[in-house]
Design goal:
Elements (H helix, E strand, L loop, with lengths): L5 E4 L14 H12 L3 E5 L4 H7 L2 H4 L3 E4 L4 E4 L4 E4 L4 H14 L6 E4 L2 E4 L5 H6 L10 E2 L2 H5 L5 E5 L4 H9 L3 E6 L4 E6 L4 H12 L6 E5 L5 H6 L2 E4 L5 H6 L2 E2 L7 H10 L2
Parallel strand pairs: 1-2, 1-12, 2-3, 7-8, 12-13, 13-14
Antiparallel strand pairs: 3-4, 4-5, 6-7, 6-9, 9-11, 10-11
Helix pairs in contact: 1-11, 4-7
C-alpha cells in the first residue's frame, strides 16, 4: 500500500462505535498513520460543534474536516474554509412541501453551526438525529423565521416514506440522502457531496484520488467509494458499499478501521 497517501474517515458507523466513541485502538491506529506521513481527512454528516464534542482533541488537530456531507469544509493546514448553503426560496418551498405531506413532522435546520427546529424535540428525536445527550437543544423558530434561513442542511425523520415523495419533486433542486437505516432524511444544496468536497481538498494538496483510502458505512459515502482508489466498507455497512469495496473490514464496534490500518501500514 505504498501508493496510499491519505485516509478519509466517516464518523458515525465507521470511526465511532455505537456508543459514539472512538476506541483507544482506533485512535492509536489513526494517529500512528498520521505520524508515518499519511494525511487524515474526516468526512461526516455532522456539524463542527458535534465533532468537537465527540472526537478526541488529538484527532481534531490533524488538519482537514468535511462537515454536513460536504456543505462545510475546514482545511486548517491551508487556512481555507468553504460553505455551500441552501437558498431562501428553496428552503421555503421545501418546508411548505414537507408540512403539506406531514404537518406534525419535526424538521431541523443546520445554520451557522447551530441547530434550529420548527417545534420542540421529543425524546425519540435525539437518537435519530444522532445528538449527544449533552448537546444544546435546538432553537425553535416560527414559520416566517424559517423562511429567512439559508441553512447548510435540513434533517427530519423519514415517516410515511416522505423521502420518496420529496425526491420526486425536488431532486432537481437539492441533494436528498436517506441514512441511518432509512430513518433520517438529509437535504443539502444540489452541488453538495462528500466526494465533491474531498475532490477540492485533494486538488489543493496535490493528491490523486487513486492515492486515497476511504472508510464508510452509509449512503452518503457512496460517491466517496466511486472517487477513491481504495474503498473499505465497514462490516456494518450497507450492501451497496460492500459491493463496491476493495475490502470489507470488521464492524465499527470491532475496531474495523484499526484492523485495516494496522495490517496495511504495518503499524
Amino acid at each position: 500500500m505504498n501508493n496510499i497517501l491519505a485516509v478519509v474517515l466517516d464518523l458515525d458507523g465507521t470511526l465511532l462505535n455505537t456508543r459514539r466513541e472512538v476506541s483507544q485502538r482506533n485512535l492509536q491506529a489513526v494517529l500512528d498513520c498520521h505520524k508515518n506521513g499519511i494525511q487524515i481527512i474526516i468526512a461526516t454528516a455532522r456539524p463542527s460543534r458535534s465533532v468537537r464534542m465527540l472526537l478526541p482533541e488529538a484527532l481534531q488537530q490533524l488538519g482537514c474536516m468535511i462537515y454536513y456531507n460536504g456543505a462545510h469544509t475546514v482545511d486548517s493546514s491551508y487556512q481555507t474554509e468553504d460553505h455551500v448553503l441552501i437558498d431562501h426560496e428553496t428552503v421555503s418551498d421545501l418546508y411548505d412541501a414537507i408540512t403539506a405531506l406531514s404537518g406534525e413532522l419535526l424538521v431541523c435546520f443546520e445554520a451557522q453551526d447551530a441547530m434550529f427546529s420548527d417545534r420542540s424535540l421529543a425524546s425519540e428525536h435525539f437518537d435519530i438525529l444522532g445528538m449527544p445527550s449533552d448537546a444544546p437543544v435546538p432553537t425553535v423558530l416560527s414559520r416566517e423565521e424559517i423562511r429567512q434561513l439559508c441553512p447548510s442542511k435540513l434533517l427530519f425523520p423519514n415517516v410515511q416514506n416522505i423521502y420518496a415523495e420529496l425526491k420526486s419533486s425536488f431532486s432537481h433542486r437539492v441533494k436528498l440522502i436517506l441514512t441511518d437505516g432509512s430513518r433520517l432524511v438529509q437535504i443539502m444544496n444540489s452541488s453538495v457531496s462528500k466526494a465533491g468536497a474531498l475532490g477540492q481538498v485533494l486538488r489543493r494538496r496535490g493528491l490523486h484520488p487513486d492515492q486515497v483510502m476511504v472508510f464508510g458505512d452509509d449512503y452518503n459515502d457512496l460517491e466517496l467509494f466511486d472517487l477513491c482508489g481504495y474503498p473499505v466498507a465497514m462490516g456494518n455497512a450497507i450492501n451497496e458499499l460492500k459491493i463496491n469495496a476493495a475490502r470489507i473490514t470488521e464492524t465499527n464496534d470491532d475496531d474495523g478501521v484499526a484492523v485495516v490500518l494496522e495490517a496495511l501500514f504495518h503499524i
